[in-house]
Amino acid sequence: MSELKKAVFKVHIAAPIERVWAAITKEGEVLPFFYNSVMHTPSLAPGSALRMRSLDEKYTAVVGDILVVEPPSRFSHTMKFTQYADDPASTVTYELTAKDGGTELLLLLDNVPVGTKSEGYMMAGGLFITQTIKDCVETGRPNFKNRLFLGMIGLFGFMTPKLCRTENWPFEKKVS
Questions:
Q1: Cα torsion angle, 115, 68, 100, 35, sign
Q2: Burial of 4 (0-12, 13-18, 19+ CB in 10 A)
Q3: Which of 59, 74, 103, 160 could form a disulfide with 70 if both were Cys (CB 3.0 to 4.6 A apart)?
Q4: Can you tell me the mean pLDDT for 91-116?
Q5: Kind and range of the H or E element at 17?
Q6: What percent of the chain clears pLDDT 90, i.e. is strictly above it?
Q7: How many Å separate Cα 117 from the centre of its chain?
């Protein structure tokens, strides 16, 4: 790998900044915009481990470490897909700004390793994540197309690689 990539995804959400902040930092609940994962962390504070797990906690899809927590405007963490554990960690940052009676959400991706499977998933996922956060905050659920997509993910959950089992990704395991 020789290059790292940056990307920015932007969306306006017709809701107060505090509601958007609460949505992206919610723990212990299925988050459709994170592909129906549940965010787990010992503490929502810089330096804490972050894990995105299945509802039954059997699988962990994403691991990282929290870098910045500045309510209600900035949340940042490193991230790695567990099924591509050899790819270097990237950085994901959510920047929120109260604007035009709602919230402007920027999803910033940094240090994305070019030419990896992680790059492909992250570039495709940026649009899905920002649009689904908008839909969930504004209407309480993803749009129809994304609900179908999330349903398909659920149907094929049995195909998740053993490498992604949660016992392989304890909080103590550093990923950065």
A1: positive
A2: middle
A3: 74
A4: 96
A5: helix 17-24
A6: 82
A7: 16
